[in-house]
From TrEMBL:
Gene Ontology BP annotations: gamma-aminobutyrate shunt; gamma-aminobutyric acid biosynthetic process
Membrane-topology annotation of the record: Peripheral membrane protein; Lipid-anchor
GO CC annotation, single: presynaptic membrane
Protein name according to UniProt: Glutamate decarboxylase 2
Length: 147
């Protein structure tokens, strides 16, 4: 029913709006000091309470939305004011927006032809980073890489 299905625009917009609503509620709740950092359950408890098995048939959009809510219900709220960790820190709103943007664009950075703006942003960001560490005029080379 979703795009690229014929006449899938309304269903797609409604589904994505529901997902965005779930995500925004999670973000707001993450910063609420009256909530828990995590609603912790042992793995066997979560396995018994929910069906995590991969189905042979596609799930309905309502089931997918329920899975989104369940996933976030048991996720650690890294944006919570009382969340501290040595490897990950809070939730950055601009970074979150950037993640949504790059996920929606769904492109690779192999070449300028496939990702012109992202390739340019990588170029100017790396040049600025080289300037910050003292390389004259930002001369040098580099690439972003995950991990």
């Amino acid at each position: 029913d979703l795009l690229p299905a014929c006449n899938g625009e309304i269903t797609t917009m409604s589904f994505l709006q529901d997902v965005v609503d779930i995500l925004l509620q999670y973000v707001v709740k993450s910063f609420d000091r009256s909530t828990k950092v995590i609603d912790f359950h042992y793995p066997n408890e979560l396995l018994q309470e929910y069906n995590w098995e991969l189905a042979d048939q596609p799930q309905t959009l309502e089931e997918i939305l329920l899975n989104c809510r369940t996933t976030l219900k048991y996720a650690i709220k890294t944006g919570h004011p009382r969340y501290f960790n040595q490897l990950s820190t809070g939730l950055d709103m601009v970074g979150l927006a950037a993640d949504w943007l790059t996920s929606a664009a769904n492109t690779n950075m192999f070449t300028y032809e496939i990702a012109p703006v992202f390739v340019l942003l990588e170029y100017v960001t790396l040049r600025k980073m080289r300037e910050m560490v003292g390389w004259p005029g930002g001369c040098g080379d580099g690439i972003f890489s995950p991990g």
